[in-house]
Amino acid sequence: MSGASSCRALLVGAASVLPLLLAGCNSGSGGTPTKVGGSTIRAEGACDLKGVQAPLRRTLIFVDAKALRKAADAVTFAEQNKAFRDLVLSISDPAVALPAGTSAAREQITIAVVPADGSAAQTTFVGCIPGLSSQEMAAAQQKEGGVGSMFSSGTARELEDQASNFRTQLIGGMVAAGALAADKPGAQSGSVDAAPFLAGLKASKGMFEGDDRVQRLVLVSDLSGLDLPSGDAEAVRRSGVEAGRKAATDLPQVDLHVVLPAGRSAAGKDFFESYWLAQGGRLLSYGPDKIGNASPAPERLWHFSAKAAYPSGDELADVRIGDDGKGKLTASWLTLLGTPSYPIPMTGSISCSGDDCEIRSDRGGFAQAWSPQPGGEPEFGNEMPFGGMRNFAFRITGDKLSGEATDEGVYIGADKGRQGIAVNGRAK
Q1: Contact 21/158 with Cβ under 8 angstroms?
Q2: How large is the average pLDDT for residues 18-31?
Q3: pLDDT of 346 strictly over 60
Q4: Phi/psi at 137 (nearest 5 deg)?
Q5: Number of other CB atoms surrounding residue 132 within 10 Å
Q6: Residue 310: which residues within 8 A CB-CB, separation 6 or more?
């Protein structure tokens, strides 16, 4: 799917956009929670609306059954699970998440509970956040004749009503999650290999596979009781890669947040950064009560099948480019598809003119993500993808990707004048 074919001409004017939004959001998002398929509550009216772009990211919140306390109604749930309720609202409440940029208008949110026995997660809520982006709202106001006309038409009030109804459904989904809480709350314990929550995440792979959208995972669990390796940062990170390879959850290049209970130490962050990187996840935050370092959803998205011109022969690769609409890359990865694979997060700038785009790295380090000693002086070595190269420059021309990874600290083979590896691809 290329950005050229799927990410343009998104707003057709207030006369059609806003009525579609308001009518669509009425479906399945009224004041009474609608249960479909057991205990799953659905509020999907804003998920697929004509005249506006469907969001290119979805968020899945996996909560450990042992991180919840039993609750049969909304009042009890709020009393017993305040931190989880506040977390979900910060990601999903239209009045909070959209102004803060934590989530995108109409982004799909899923809540799923991972049972204490490590079996596949049980979904309790699926819905899309009703609302308009700031750009869509501005376009709508202009079409309607300005801010005064916008508010006098009642459109803003209708959006508020839809948000209130969605929130009711969302709270219903959280209460349904509370009903699935373990009889005895507590931390994960024992070895990482045997942790039920991590096993349950792997057993739930079907929930985030086979979807062209970017996936964002929020994992809510107390991991402080796990037996994690000790020693210096290099040894810990190498252990994380080894454990991640063994776990083989094979995440589809996701942004990932781990939310711990209040007061828990984030001492395991080094381990889990490499643990999830080895499986295709970029750990953006690891700490108590909330997600941090939230990256924006892409407004344009490209997928390429590519080849990297290694001296020993071409290496197959997948490249995903996400444009945040403000000149920055988001949800962007280059993955070498060997055995084992090497997924590399990409950060930098993107500048487009029509279907042609220029992409350049920033100081994010690129392949240094695989360094066992991050920070400080860079490390280079054949065991790292691209030898640890820190820079890239690519160009998208229609359905083609071309460019190279480079580093002034590296030369290729015996040619000391060659400091780059070419990468060329074509849109999937």
Answers
A1: no
A2: 39
A3: yes
A4: -65, -40
A5: 22
A6: 421
